[in-house]
Amino acid sequence: MLLGYYGWPAGQVLPGAGMALFLVTLLVGVGLAARNDLRGAWALLVLLCPIGMLWLHPLAEELAVISYGGGPNADWTTLATAAIIVAVAAAIVMSAALMVQRRVAFTHAAVERCTACGSLTSDNATR
Length: 127
Hints:
Blueprint: H1 10-33, H2 39-46, H3 48-54, H4 56-68, H5 76-110, H6 122-125
Helix pairs in contact: 1-2, 1-3, 3-5, 4-5
């Protein structure tokens, strides 16, 4: 029952929405990657934080059980801690992806290619 007398059970609906968002983004990303287009991967990286926030209640409940052996109901401090962990983890993953992308772009910019066919020029072929 979605709507009941006691209100909306967000802890049950939001993780499902997060999983649906993750799966749709993953499928679109794989479809685009098949055509050598990385926009889907960037969309997945950008949506990691919102997907993690949709999974906040189950993550906080697991954090409560792991950290201090509490029951499955997390209090507001555990929810805040889980939210900070999700936000920091998403920022770290995005920063790492940007650094790798910049490094790859820098490496590709340093290589000289033929304008007609795209192959390496003779200077770079011997390196």
